[in-house]
């Protein structure tokens, strides 16, 4: 459910420390308890032995308050702590009789503690039983020693001697003794901490397993074969995001390589046609002697094909410089209305030759930041493209409309139009809607690609709207 590797590492670190702390605390607590019980058992045995040796001197022939007082005094001398419980019973002569209470500690006057069965069954002196019990009704955990004693010159008795187990409520004189093994927690925690690298290794190996898959898949991807994709990484964390990013990058590279291959083929095709024509014309000229007029005609055709080759090469170099961003793009203030007016004057002659009406519609005065030469080339490409594909008798309209945030140049024609399926590919290099038609107009298929590159360099955008048989509208939008 946690999609972040950083969050999982953080939680793993916290959980590891908490687990180590809990284990260390548990081990230390168990050790403390066992150590505490050993200390208490030893003190209880020592105190009961002391009471056994001295109780004969105070054992009365009859029970009474005096014996109770002497018994308590003996308890405090043997075990001088407040949190102590003791009972002294007269041992029954047979199992049919119950032990008779002779005296008890006044610390817990209403307390009751059952005698274990061993005190009834054992008949020998020093029969003893140590257990942990709850002193009712106080609900306090006590360590209880029940021992059959035989005081000198006195009848057999049962001594039940108990004190609290919890070190927090233990007498202050024992508290320090209980704290002696406190170093166990530190030692246990340190030992467990040594296992943390092992746990970390296991966790990291599992967490970074998708990276291993990613690396293994990436090694199979080469420039010759970009069809492979990174698979098997199903995590939704940063590693999964990295795998998706790699796949997207490979997809872009694949498209780029395909584009380069297609571009190389298109360049070869474009150059092949005029070169073949040049070669054929020269071969024809060399086959026999010809008149000066024939040589002049052949040379004119050679010059035309050479100009076409030169134009293609210049356009390709220009695009390469734009792609490499080595072409200096000025950011001067450009009067866009003046540029469009100049383009109108330049292309008017070409429109008249094709018997077209070139109309200058709205011309709002507006300035933008850009390179005058590049902007002129962009717009001339659009206007000449409209003139070339508009039949005689048609119209080509130019307009410049400015708003507060934008300046829009529109080139609208009444030409043959562009099929809907071809519109997304118009700005691809060497793309032609109709190969035969384009060669008839002398186009190389680079004009619109150059226009798009120039627009990108000026943070402008070009949109196209077209209907077959009705015309096409190109709109260039600049931010002011």
Verbal overview:
The chain is built from 13 helices and twelve strands. The chain has 480 residues and is of the alpha+beta class. The protein folds into three domains: 183 residues, Beta-Lactamase; 87 residues, Orthogonal Bundle (Helix Hairpins), CATH 1.10.287.130; 148 residues, 2-Layer Sandwich (Heat Shock Protein 90), CATH 3.30.565. The strands form three sheets. A five-stranded antiparallel β-sheet has the order 2-1-5-4-3. The chain starts with a helix and ends with a strand.
Describe, in short, the structure shown.
This protein has 480 residues and is an alpha+beta fold.
At CATH level 2, the architecture of the largest domain is: 2-Layer Sandwich
Pattern of helices and strands: HHEEHEEEHHHHHHEHEEHEEHHEE
Order of strands across the main sheet: 2-1-5-4-3
Helix content: 40-55%
| CATH class placement of the largest domain | Alpha Beta
Number of strands: 12
Instruction: Using the CA coordinates, give the radius of gyration.
Output: 53 Å
Strand content: 15-25%
Q: How many helices? A: 13
Largest sheet: 5 strands, antiparallel
Spans of at least 5 consecutive residues with low confidence: 169-181, 436-440
